[in-house]
User: What shape does this take?
Amino acid sequence: MAEAEADHVGDLVRERGVLEIYRPAASCVHGRQRRPEQLGNVLALTHLARRRAPCQQQNRSAAHGEANARTKDLIHGTAFHKDAIARGARIVTQYKYTADAAAHFNKHGIDLTVYGQVDPSMTVAHVHVAEGHFQEFYSLKSTYTYYIISGHGTFYLNDEAVEVKATDLVVVPPVTRIYYFGTMEMTLTVSPAFDETYERHVRFLEKNQILNTSRP
Assistant: This one.
C-alpha cells in the first residue's frame, strides 16, 4: 500500500510540477478535510485523493480552488524571498524597540515616547501626563486606544466625561473629540498608524479649565 501511494505521489509531482504531499483517508476528521499547510520554508500542497468516504467527496471542488489560490500566494512570497537573497539582500526582522531609541517630545502638556516601528497598521507610544492634555482634537481615520498603567484622570470624549484609573482601557473611535486631565501613565496605540494629515485641531485649553471643562 505504501509503495502504491508513493507511486501516486510521484505521478502527481510529474503531472503538476509542484511538491505535493499525499495524506490518506485519515486526513478526514469529524467530517472535514484538512487544509493545505506550509511546513517551515517548504511549500507543500496537501493532495486529497478521491475516496469513497463522504467527507472527502463533499466540497472537493471548493477545497481544490482554495488550495490553488493559497499555493499561488505562497509561491509568490517564496519567489520574492529567493529573489532578495539572490540580489544579496539581507532580510532582517526587528522584534524589539527600546525607549532609548524612541522619539521623545512634549505636546500640549503630555510627555510622549514614540517608538520607531515601521508598521502602517499602528503607532505605539508611552504617555506621561502630569495635569492634562491641553488640546482638544480628533482623528478622521484612526482609533486611539489608551491603556492606563497608573494614576487616574478624566477623559472628555465628545463632551462626555469618562473617569479612568489604573488598568482601565479607553477606546476612542475616529471622529471623536478628545482631551483629558489627570495624573497618569499610559500606553497609547493609534490604529491605523498616526498620520498628521488626518488629525484635526479643535481648541486649546487652559489649566484653569480643569474644573470647568464644558464646551462654550
Q: What stands out?
A: Residues 138 and 173 are 9 Å apart (CA to CA). The chain has a mean pLDDT of 73. The chain has two domains: 2-86, 103-209. Helices lie at 2-16, 54-57, 60-86.
